[in-house]
Amino acid sequence: MFDQAEMLGYLGDSYTNKVVERLNRFAFIPNELIDSLATDALTQNWGANNFVLKKYLAAHVAWSIEQGRFTVGGDQFYVTAGHLQTRYGTPLYLAFSKNRNTGREPYYLVAAGSKISAPQLPIPPDIPPAPVLPDRAEIVMMHDHILGDNASRFPWLNQTPRVAQMCAISGAIQWSINRGLHLSQWYFGRMTYVVPLYLQSREDITAAPDLIAPVQVNPDSLLVRTVLLPHMAYGNSRVAVKRHDQLPHWLIAAWDEHADLMTEAEIENPETA
What we know:
- This protein has helices at 4-11, 19-26, 31-40, 51-66, 143-149, 162-178, 234-239, 249-258, 264-268, and strands spanning 27-28, 71-73, 76-85, 91-98, 107-113, 138-141, 183-187, 190-197, 211-217, 221-224.
- The chain is elongated and about 65 Å long.
- It is an alpha+beta fold and 273 residues long.
- The longest helix has 17 residues, at 162-178.
- It has two domains: 4-113, no CATH class; 138-272, no CATH class.
- Helix 2 crosses helix 4 (51-66).
- The chain starts with a helix and ends in a 5-residue tail after the last helix.
């Protein structure tokens, strides 16, 4: 009744930065079930309207189907709610049925939680590995967007010549990568990295950086399209870890401070913020 190829067809192209919209085309997701998952899972800040949770589920549900990590029983199929667990360590699950309403989403989320009755419970999907960083990669920056459009994010560099600004950001990226401070993130259908930029002080690398730089890994270069404020990385980085406490403390603290101010559009694609 549930064919993997058919389900993948309904999911559509994974190369998108609108993963929540992609999930919403695949299945009708009642808000009350999202709210109940947020209550059942280990306590964490999912932002306004639990949108980070929706993004997390959008990526992990797709991975479950792509990796065949779903089970079937009767008129329902089951996936885990990613790697989410209750505070007692019990996995959380999602149960979907086919949507009988014509002209609507092909599937319908009918239940969510730890008490799912299924002939066989599914296991979580593997989080895709981040790409290997090439040795001695050139750092290529889209300087007009970084140093022009987003210059207000680093006012302490405004009086510095443009070339010096580029060198400062490039050097900060390399410094953090050399110390293994880069974080995995899921962006536009692939695993990439965000790199913390310590531009004013490097005395405490457990403290929040001045900025973060999303980087795209190419065979011989790292492409940097923009620089973001620290809290902007949370949504994409949360998708890439099993538990929120696996993220750096500075990122969780920055997110908690700004979560209520972030719009759904900014969480979905922080690079356009």
